[in-house]
């Protein structure tokens, strides 16, 4: 055995087929040469690999990333790599966990070797920062149906929820993963949450208007109708007063005239209260029906989103760089 400097011995040039940037440096300035021509030497290779990771099930994503390490070879002429044991030295790096590394060859060809790296995303942090707040906002919107329609408390609460969710999406817009070939399903989840919150807010506004006025017409039209009804009532009262004066009724009837007016006023107030009660009962029935539909839609959506998050996969050809 002879120890010689690296600069005196020819060393093969390794390259990563799907690498974006690769740097190779020698682990030592010297190498060991055996009498049979075998050379013992260590090379340190740092590479950045262009690998499209499947983020369809984000934040519960898991995928494979190939690292194609090869040497020059053409039509059976050139150099060939003989890989030994493959092992990992560091599995925990950031939000991704390296589960396994295997050595494969595409189509059984010796000049197309690649390391098949199995990756899995740590879902705790994205779930707590992205998914859990959206679920809590939807739960708060469901509970807000217990608030009464009158008074405006429900509408103000739902408007606050919608604005809070919009600000939440604006803040986390840059943190969401990009589209790519398989767009993350979490983007569709946020879109559904925003649409369902806005529809719930609009439903509460319409029912509040219906419970208060009994109609969905604009305020100006309803007020004009009420003023016309009041004018006709005043005219009828004035005509009745005039007829009482022309009849020259007895003293007892004249004494009972103020009492009749009071009774008539009380009857009118009771009729208005009954009308308001009928409007409120009708609005509450419609609100209960809307709540049942809303809850059913949420249950169906929860089943669908769980199926697509854990039971559905989006396929990506990770070896398309050899196509």
UniProtKB/TrEMBL annotation:
Membrane topology listed for this record: Multi-pass membrane protein
GO cellular component, one term: membrane
Key words, A-Z: Membrane, Transmembrane, Transmembrane helix
Principal subcellular localisation of the protein: membrane
Domain Neurotransmitter-gated ion-channel ligand-binding per the UniProt entry, residue ranges: 3-85
The Neurotransmitter-gated ion-channel transmembrane domain, residue ranges: 130-208
Transmembrane as UniProt keyword: yes
Subcellular location: Membrane
GO MF term list: extracellular ligand-gated monoatomic ion channel activity; transmembrane signaling receptor activity
SUPFAM superfamilies: Neurotransmitter-gated ion-channel transmembrane pore (SSF90112), Nicotinic receptor ligand binding domain-like (SSF63712)
Membrane-traversing stretches: 127-147, 159-179, 185-202, 286-310
KW Transmembrane helix (keyword) present: yes
Name the UniProt record assigns to this protein: Neurotransmitter-gated ion-channel ligand-binding domain-containing protein
Organism name: Hucho hucho (huchen)
């Amino acid at each position: 055995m002879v120890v010689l400097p690296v600069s005196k011995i020819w060393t093969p040039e390794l390259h990563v087929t799907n690498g974006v940037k690769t740097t190779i440096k020698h682990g030592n300035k010297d190498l060991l040469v055996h009498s049979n021509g075998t050379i013992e030497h260590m090379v340190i290779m740092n590479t950045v690999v262009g690998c499209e990771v499947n983020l369809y099930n984000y934040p519960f994503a898991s995928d494979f990333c190939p690292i194609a390490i090869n040497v020059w070879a053409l039509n059976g002429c050139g150099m060939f790599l003989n890989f030994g044991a493959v092992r990992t030295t560091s599995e925990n790096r950031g939000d991704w966990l390296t589960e396994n590394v295997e050595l494969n060859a595409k189509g059984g060809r010796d000049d197309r070797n690649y390391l098949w790296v199995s990756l899995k995303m740590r879902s705790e942090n994205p779930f707590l920062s992205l998914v859990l707040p959206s679920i809590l906002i939807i739960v708060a919107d469901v509970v807000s149906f217990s608030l009464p329609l009158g008074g405006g408390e429900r509408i103000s609460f739902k408007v606050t929820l919608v604005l809070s969710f919009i600000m939440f999406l604006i803040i986390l817009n840059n943190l969401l993963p990009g589209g790519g070939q398989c767009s993350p399903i979490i983007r569709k989840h946020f879109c559904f949450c925003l649409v369902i919150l806005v529809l719930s807010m609009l439903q509460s506004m319409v029912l509040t208007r219906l419970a208060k006025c009994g109609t969905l017409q604009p305020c100006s039209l309803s007020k004009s109708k009420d003023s016309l009804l009041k004018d006709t009532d005043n005219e009828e009262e004035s005509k009745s007063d005039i007829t009482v004066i022309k009849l020259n009724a007895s003293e007892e009837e004249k004494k009972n005239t103020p009492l009749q007016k009071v009774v008539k006023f009380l009857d009118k107030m009771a009729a208005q209260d009954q009308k308001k009660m009928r409007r409120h009962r009708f609005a509450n029935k419609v609100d209960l029906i809307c709540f049942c539909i809303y809850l059913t839609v949420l249950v169906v959506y929860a089943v669908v989103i769980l199926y697509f998050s854990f039971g559905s996969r989006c396929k990506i050809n990770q070896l398309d760089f050899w196509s």
